[in-house]
Amino acid sequence: ANKPDDVQDIIKLVGGAPVVVKLLEGTQGIGVVLAETQKAAESVIEGFMGLKANILVQEFIKEAGGADIRCFVVGGKVVAAMKRQGAPGEFRSNLHRGGSASLIRLTPEERSTAVRSAQAMGLNVAGVDLLRANHGPVVMEVNSSPGLEGIEAASQKDVAGLIIRFIEDHAKSGKTSTKGKG
């Protein structure tokens, strides 16, 4: 987006306000803004543009209720998943922002979406963040270097050990391929 008309087109592209505007360099919920109106969305996007920041504009999924799902994909399989619930009054579900983690049962569609998302990025190990929307799972992020915070406790699985075993099994046979990506 380089001019005001572009900003309006971007907002329309994701279904209009409210929208979530994410600073791509941000982590742990820093630089993530909920713009509840068209004018607020335009102002936030233009402000980030004025700073020459790289941003992502996403549809706000109200029915997610401040929760998301982190799927940990290793070698083409979801090995662990957790629900992250934002703190009261917080739309961001990051654990660093006071959110909580709990075990969740994935639907087959959520499992498939997470695996396909990691594969589309050429990743053998990925943290795929999904939202439960009325129209099905929505991919919010695919993390090439996902943290283990919360996932092992919530899932009761040794995710680090599963990653190490995958690497050991595939490094010996030369089976890993990341297509030049993470």
Automatic annotation (TrEMBL):
Keywords: ATP-binding, Ligase, Magnesium, Manganese, Metal-binding, Nucleotide-binding, Protein biosynthesis, Transferase. Its cofactor is Mn(2+); Mg(2+). GO terms for biological process: SOS response; translation. GO terms for molecular function: ATP binding; metal ion binding; ribosomal S6-glutamic acid ligase activity; transferase activity. Coiled coil: none annotated. InterPro entries: ATP-grasp, ATP-grasp_RimK-type, ATP_grasp_subdomain_1, Rp_bS6_RimK/Lys_biosynth_LsyX. GO terms for cellular component: cytoplasm. Residues 16-168 form the ATP-grasp domain. In the C-terminal section; belongs to the RimK family. This is Probable alpha-L-glutamate ligase. It comes from uncultured Thiotrichaceae bacterium.
